[in-house]
Amino acid sequence: MRLCLFNDDRLGLVRGDLVHDVTAALDTLPARRYPLPRHDLLVAALPDLRAPILAAAADAAGVPAASVHLHPPVANPGKIVAAPVNYRKHMQEAEADPATFHAAHVRKIEETGLFLKAVSSLSGASDAVRIIQPDRRTDHEVELAVIIGTPCKDATRETAMAHIAAYAIGLDITIRGPEERSMRKSADTYTVLGPWMVTADEVADPAALDLSLDVNGEARQRANTRDLILDIPELIVFASRFYTLEPGDILLTGTPEGVGPIRPGDVMHAAIAGIGAMSVRVA
């Protein structure tokens, strides 16, 4: 299934170019009272929601996806975990440009480890990325986003993939400079997730997905997830050694070479095979 959150927090099932309103399926979610759980209730319930979603879609006329406002497909992630410098050519790119990439941040991922982004940085495909420091270089980074579906601690390579609920396109917007990554990458709107989430059963081989990003029609990033240094299972193993991964947590798997600056007025077009494409404005 391809699921989106759109307009006034409606749940949509995406089929082709149409979005079918299946919000009625959420009535099957259990009522919760404070204190609320740290995980995303929709993602946690996805296996049980499949039948109600399909039933609701049968009675819902589709509207063009281009006509709706797309929010992040995960409304309440507990955390956003991100992988730095996880493509070899991006490592080479960063090593060759010390004026842009601070030396303290250009190390092997096994040495650097992962980092966290603020959940308040999350935005959707229809939202603009809003540059907060126009006097400093701000870059685009396209990434495959993995959405965790079941609790995961100390995963093994053999069990890791079973914890994935879905995939999406991620944009990890980055201010260049000496500060820690979590600060430079956590401004409001600096984590774009979309245009929807595609459930794991529909992605045959997440280790062989083409991904791309253009800015104003200019090709910037081109790669395939087979080029990851730490692949998806190993990233889940790595992350779950330190954190308990919970339903709705987002894992950004790293960006390939070709990162470059964005400025107000630009339009980024990001695409990942088997997932979709989205055009995101810069303001």
Explain what this protein looks like in three dimensions.
With 283 residues, the chain is α+β, with helices and mostly antiparallel strands. It has two domains: 2-71, no CATH class; 80-281, Fumarylacetoacetate hydrolase, domain 2 (Alpha-Beta Complex), CATH 3.90.850. 16% of the residues lie in helices and 30% in strands. It has six helices and 18 strands. The chain has helices spanning 41-44, 46-58, 88-95, 109-112, 181-184, 232-242; strands at residues 2-6, 10-15, 18-21, 62-64, 70-71, 80-82, 115-117, 122-123, 138-139, 142-148, 164-172, 174-175, 191-199, 210-215, 218-224, 250-252, 267-272, 276-281. The strands form three sheets. Strands 1, 2, 3, 4, 5, 6, 7, 8, 10, 11, 13 and 16 form a twelve-stranded mixed beta sheet that branches. It has a four-stranded antiparallel beta sheet with strand order 15-14-17-18, with no helix packed on it. Strand 2 and strand 3 form a beta hairpin. The longest helix has 13 residues, at 46-58. It is globular. The two termini are 32 Å apart. The mean pLDDT is 94.
